[in-house]
Structure formats: C-alpha cells, structure tokens
Amino acid sequence: MEHVENYQIKSQRLIKASEMLIAGNFYDSSLHCSYYGVLQTATYLLLRYDYNGFDELKKTFAISNTKSKGSHQVIWSAIKHRAKRTRDRKALLKINNDIITLKQMREDADYSANMADEDTARGASRLAKDLITTLEEFYR
Amino acid sequence: MSTEFMMDQLDILRQEFKTAAFAYFVNNDRSNHFIVIDNNVVTEEERFIDIQFEVTDRFYYCFPGETLSFITKDRLALLKTLEEVDGFRVSHYEWTQLISETDNNFEKNLATAGDALQCGDIKYALAA
Description:
The complex is a heterodimer of chains A (140) and B (128).
Chain A: H1 5-23, H2 27-50, H3 54-62, H4 71-86, H5 89-111, H6 118-138
Helix pairs in contact in A: 1-2, 1-6, 2-4, 2-5, 2-6, 3-4, 4-5, 5-6
Chain B: H1 2-16, E1 22-26, E2 32-37, H2 46-62, E3 67-72, H3 73-76, E4 83-86, H4 92-101, H5 106-119, H6 124-127
C-alpha cells in the first residue's frame, strides 16, 4: 500500500520551493514547481478518496480514449470527472480553465526558449495556491 | 479542425455577448486553445457560464486529446508563447460609444464606420 499522504507532503514542498526559487530569481524553475505542486495535490486527493492506486486511475481514464494519454492528462481527466459529479458548474469551469493555464505556463517555462519573468512566476504561484485550495474544497 | 471549431464558437460568443470582446489564441502545437475575454462582468453572467459550459463540453467530446480554456486578459499576459489566431475586436457596446462620443461629425463617422466594418478586423486596442 502506497503512502498517499506523501503526495501531499511533496505538494507542500513544491509550493514552498516555488516561493524560494522566486526569491532567488529562478523564475522558470519556480513555474515548474508551481505546476507540479498542484499535480501532486490532485494525485493525493484522487488516490486518498477515489482510486485504489495509479493502476486503477489509469485503467479508468486511459482505455476509453483511442489516443494514449500521459499521466498528467489522466490525473486532470480524473479531477474533472470528480468535479462534474459535484454539479458545481462554476467550480468545474474554474478548475478546467486554471489547470490548462498553469499547464501552458509550465510548458512555456520548460519547453520554450523564453525566459520567465518575476511577474509570471508570481502569477503562477498564486494560481497554483488558489487551485490547490479549490481542489481541497472539492473533497471536504 | 479544432481551430475551425473554435472560430465558429468565437462567432457565437461575439453575437451573444455584445458588451464584451473576445480573442482566440493557441499554443505552438495547436493542442491548447484559449478564448480570451476582456470583460470581467460578463464572465460572471449565468448565460455566459451556460455557453462556456456547452462549448467546453462539446470541445472535449470532439477533440479529447486537446484542451480549451477561457481566460481573462490579465491571465493572457502570463502566457508568453501563444499564437494569436483571431484578435480582439471592438464590441458593439464600445462601437456605439465611439460613435456617440464623436457625434458632432456624424457623416464623417459613418464613413469611418463603413470602412472599418468592411475590413472586419478592427483590433480592440485601436478603440481603447
């Protein structure tokens, strides 16, 4: 049995790391940590409350699609599926919109030649913390 | 194909919400699509939430391997590598404001309006 709580600890560490990296002017790296901080919280919540391990999660959200899905997309699909069940449409849209925005920011930071600036890194950090709060509220 | 879908949705949004302006951006591999809205009041309207929900649902049904996000203009500033597919246009509300503010030269305004409407691609920034 996996210690799923460790995903939550990792998430907290990543968010803390994103703040420390901003303070050290490592903005691209900070963006990376902000995104992964949210991903780890999502993983924790899914495995703690909804699914018995990654295999079950992957089976549920990967087989129905003809395109192969990466692990990130599997997690976000599962989160959106969970959010749909709550019938809170505003929150579902917010989660969808914010996750994709943060994901794109991470891709900008990791895969483009552009260097992130402080405003962008701080924006990502705020977005990540906000998303983590929204996700946790779904499971209360 | 998803770009064509997005352009259709953009037309619907522009017709439905005339007090707002919309733009469409996409990432470099055309897998992440962004509809940008300039009006924070409209984003809170129930009708806008309904349409946003319908568009998003339809998009994921048609293009399961891609993503769609509605964002505000301030969020767009955080995304550095997106390509503009269809930029902001003057909304109906702003257009009528523009005309009424300079109503002392009505004929000239009409001529300007005609030229601009034929172009069909008036950038939001020009009206500001």
